[in-house]
Amino acid sequence: MHFATDPADTDTYFQTQPNTKGYNLTHLNAAYDLCNRIYVDAMVQPLRLCSEGRALAAMVDRSPIKSKTIVIADRGYEGYNNFAEMITSHVVISQMDKRHQYQVNFTVTVHVCRHFLRSRDDEPPPDVEALIRKNILPIRPIRQGQKNTRKIRYKSAVSFVYRVV
């Protein structure tokens, strides 16, 4: 979305050539209900900081929809992590004991969703919600003197261009 020019806003300001007038751009992410023909949620992000995946996850978290839903999205919104986020928002985790709160294991959830999406017609699909419910992790509080650091190994993104003819 284009709006009034403000060179001080570095997250949205673009100038294509040194001697030309610049412009500001933002990115609109919207959730639309096809049946009722209304927008149910929207998120505006600065174009330099836009992330369609994070926007979709935020809109799913805020969504009041509890029934079965079909989500249609274009490139940028796809991803097993987003699919897992949508499913886990509706999984009820029973608290087994009083010592810990429990959370979804997203690593297992992404693999379960991937298996579900790749399943063929000749084999029955897995019960995704039951598998997610089965693989939960305790949330342990941070002890005194313990740092809240995670050992994360980054992987480079792999993308491809496709064309439908």
From TrEMBL:
InterPro entries: Transposase_11 (IPR002559). GO terms for biological process: DNA transposition. Transmembrane segments: none annotated. Residues 16-118 form the Transposase IS4-like domain. Pfam families: DDE_Tnp_1. GO terms for molecular function: DNA binding; transposase activity. This is Transposase IS4-like domain-containing protein. It comes from Paenibacillus piri.
